[in-house]
Amino acid sequence: MKLLKFNFIALFIIAGLGLTSCSSDDDNSSTADDTYIRFTIDGTNYNFTNIATAQSLSITLNGNNGADFSDPGDTQISIWLPLALETGTFDVEEGFDSDYQVSFTSDPMGFDFDFANDGTITLTQTTGEYIEGTFTATITNDNSTTITLENGEFRGLTIE
Q: 95: domain range?
């Protein structure tokens, strides 16, 4: 009986060590330190890190200048992509139901979840651990103020 109990405990410890020593590269539920969305507006550089990746009817890469996703700050950007990703350059189309879209919110600039009405998204990597690419977007708010996001680049975690 003692031997059976010892074998069970030894097996439990070995299994536990095996599970804790292995890490999963597929765990995309948290953000990574090396994810980002960067762009320029009128010569001002924006650099959001620790990008959150979400998926439902589309994939969104979400960045903000706050402390974290629950404290988003006053400027936020989302890059919307279709579920079936492929590399290439795609036109941004205005509207919530577009496959490729950029949305932008900035209290100081007067933008409240406004969608781009023009631009492109180029996907350079769509498989593996990251989704990567570049983008440009022209966005007009309800007051007819227009901004252009230039030199955009992003790197977000994939969801598998």
A: 28-157
Side-chain-facing half-sphere of 42: CA atoms under 13 Å: 5
CA pair distance 129, 107, nearest whole angstrom: 33
How high does pLDDT run on average in the chain? Answer: 81
Total domains in the fold of the chain = 1
Residue 125 has pLDDT above 60, yes or no: yes
Query: Taking a C-beta distance cutoff of 8 angstroms, is the pair 133, 39 a contact?
Result: no
The beta-strand segments (E) located in the chain are 36-41, 44-49, 52-55, 59-64, 75-81, 88-91, 101-106, 111-125, 130-140, 146-157
Q: Is the pLDDT of residue 47 over 50?
A: yes
Residue 138 has pLDDT above 50, yes or no: yes
Q: Do residues 30 and 20 lie in contact, with contact meaning Cβ atoms separated by under 8 Å?
A: no
Q: Assess if residue 130 is contained within a domain.
A: yes
Rounded distance between C-alpha atoms, residue 103 and residue 70, angstroms: 18
The overall pTM is greater than 0.90: no
Q: Which residues contact 156 (CB under 8 A, 6 or more apart)?
A: 35, 37, 51, 53, 61, 79, 130, 131, 132
